[in-house]
Amino acid sequence: MADINIQRKKSSPSPWLLILLVVLALGALAWYLLREDASQPVSSGAETPIEQAPINADSGAAPRPDDQNAVGDMATAEPLPTPEALAGATQRDPASPNYARNGLRILSAVLVDLADRADLRDPAVNEKRDVLTSATARLDDSTASLRPGFVAATGLMQAMQQKAYPTLEPTVADLITRAGQLSGRSTTPDDQQQLRDFFTRATEVVRALNEPGT
Predict the structure, then answer these.
(1) What's the CA gap between 87 and 76, in Å, rounded?
(2) Are the C-beta atoms of 186 and 192 separated by less than 8 Å?
(3) Would you call 66 exposed, middle or buried from its count of C-beta atoms within 10 A (0-12, 13-18, 19+)?
(4) What pLDDT, on a 0 to 100 scale, did the predictor assign at position 46?
């Protein structure tokens, strides 16, 4: 009689176990997603930088310049072409290297400004003004001679004196003589004294020319 092979029927897994595994998997996924969201920085809703509004200059709230820079700018600013500015330059130390150059620069600026005055403007004055402008065009060049500038300055003084200031004739004539004797240098005590004397007398003439003529 043949043996009958009887195999035990394998039991199928419980559906509740499958459901439990699915729930656990979903729970793990939900926990992972919530943890990722919590780690992200909170956005303020404005990702682009906010530009600072410009300060209204009329409000008085504009930033003030640095005080030291402002003082430095004032110290290096060119003095206004006035007789007082020339007098101030004259009183400085004549032994300084730029004494003659700075004094001539201020003197020329004062005379050119006076030459544009309506009561002094005529062909002779205009010609001498152009000569002075040309003679002092290279004042910034330390190698340029200053003597032509001194001579041209007294020439313009003479033209204005002849136009409206007859009483200044002797003083201007003396300045013309002094200008011809100047070397333009300030290396020796004699040079320094000549320069100071010239600028002192030139200041007196400029002050007189600054007043209305006859």
Answers:
(1) 18
(2) yes
(3) exposed
(4) 46
What is 42-58 written as a DSSP string? Answer: PP-S--SPPPPPPPPGG
- CA nearest 178: which of 201, 157, 156, 159? 201
> Rounded to whole angstroms, how far apart are CA atoms 110 and 159?
15
pLDDT tens-place string over residues 14-50: 677 778 777 777 777 777 777 765 555 544 444 444 4
Distance CA(178)–CA(149), nearest Å, equals: 13
Contact (CB, 8 A) for 96 and 186: yes
**Amino acid at site 125:** V
- What is the number of H-type helices and E-type strands within the chain? 8, 0
